[in-house]
Amino acid sequence: MAVSGREPSQLDETTRFRAAEAPRTVLVVDDEAEVRELMAGYLRARGLDVVEAANGLEALLKFRLVRPHAVVLDILMPRLGGLQALQRIRALDQNVAVVAVTGSPDEELRAQILASGATAILSKPVPLKGLWAALGSDQEDAVTPARAARRPARPEPTPSAGGTPVGRVLIVDDEADVRSTLQQYVATQGCEARVAADGASALRLIRADPPDVVLLDIQMPGLSGIDALKAIQEAAPGVKVIMISGAASFELAKETLAHGAFDFIPKPPDLKALSQTLQAAFLMKRLEAEWHVEPAADD
Q1: Residue 73 scores a pLDDT above 50
Q2: Spatial separation of the C-alpha atoms in residues 22 and 12, rounded to whole Å
Q3: pTM of the prediction?
Q4: Domains in the chain, start-ordered, CATH in brackets?
Q5: Cis peptide bond prior to 210, omega within 30° of 0
Q6: CA 203 → CA 151, 166, 252, distances in Å?
Q7: In sequence order, which residues have a C-beta less than 8 Å from that of residue 23 and are 6 or more positions away?
């Protein structure tokens, strides 16, 4: 079991919760249904209440509604990546235990995870006894006495199944046909759509007039991929960046989620999926404004 940020003795796999120390409710967040259900089922079998979420946006919504005692959070996820979700969860609750889960061996990423407030890091595939131990050793201070100081939850808006997203979108792709197709489709969704053919042009437009959402091709000449994502985040931290990924760059697209991308879509794009992703991004923007949440920085 690979665990960062804790001494092995603190994560003894024989650890068992004492009744007064056990977290009553755990939020388990992972976009892989089989992995999520495996962890959730294991924790339920040990008497815990488990709430599940499939992406970062859903995790944030459910966290505010349920206010769990602990969170198990996959870092490489769509719709508000796990690192940004961690930063926002920590801003809402300084005491909740967050066990981060990642399949990435990137030491820089792991340092960012710990700096963002993770209690511990577990590597995928996650040993279930290791997960139990991580939660057990990290909950002794966080859940006693019974988290009496927790703020009451209030109902939050949830993503609408239909409706037309309204917002400002910048499409960045070096292929003219792709730019044209996406621009036309985004316009039919009630959005203002602008285009740029490369990362440098996109940055100039973003600095002059930041959009709500950027659709960013992950592979372009010059500035592209994670470097382009980081440059956009520095120029306009509140912009939601959706990566456009071909089959050859799928793994890189997943990695961008850890670096703050909101989501990624395949190339050629599935327009229905694009519409849903845009709606989720616009919803996140509205929720941040309502909750007065500052955009999370990707250090």
Answers
A1: yes
A2: 16
A3: 0.62
A4: 3-138 (3.40.50.2300), 168-291 (3.40.50.2300)
A5: no
A6: 40, 22, 21
A7: 17, 48, 68, 69, 70, 97, 135, 139, 142, 143
